[in-house]
Amino acid sequence: MLIREANTGDWPAIWPFFHKIVAAGETFTYPIDLREEQGRDWWLLPAPNRTVVAVDDAGTVLGTAKMNNNHMGNGSHIASASYMVDPAHSGQGVGRALCEYTVEWARAAGFRAMQFNAVVETNVHAVKLYRSIGFEVLGTLPEGFRHPSKGYVGLHIMHRAL
Predict the structure, then answer these.
(1) How far does Cα 138 stand from its chain's mean position?
(2) Are the C-beta atoms of residues 36 and 15 closer than 8 Å to each other?
């Protein structure tokens, strides 16, 4: 698996799984009816932020991550990231590779920590992965997310010092 900078030519491969994940409404706080143009603008970030894709030997996009400063101004020393793995390639280490890549990017870019603002507590695979990489749950916003089948569930704020 290779992780490389994403470009607009990758969007047609990202959009189908991006759309499926967002429309399911189970893990992201994006509107479930998000249109393609807006999704592309939110995901493909301009420098100094980054968006990457994980690809296999044939060039198939397996997943993607975006990395950015979590806040502006005097809070800009904290990084954040978001991840999407094509469900057809889940369980193959793509999410872990992307997460580890973003932590290294943030460290190399001089950030002091990473913070995830809204990890849905029912997204147990993501929570387990983030914890295994050193993130801790700082707190949970009770009923901060309206899950389509589980009702109102918490949103974790997760943090890791770099």
Answers:
(1) 18
(2) yes
**Which are the contacts of 76, defined by CB distance < 8 A and separation ≥ 6?**
69, 70
Residues contacting residue 55 through CB under 8 Å, at least 6 positions apart: 1, 2, 3, 4, 61, 62
pLDDT of residue 34: 96
Other Cβ atoms less than 10 A from the Cβ of 149: the count is: 8
The answer to whether 12 touches 6, Cβ cutoff 8 Å, is: no
Mean pLDDT by runs of 10 across the 162 residues of the chain is 96 97 97 96 94 97 97 94 96 96 97 97 96 98 98 98 98
Q: How far apart are CA 69 and CA 115, in angstroms?
A: 9
What is d(CA 94, CA 55) in angstroms, rounded to the nearest whole number?
9
What pLDDT score was predicted for residue 122? Answer: 97
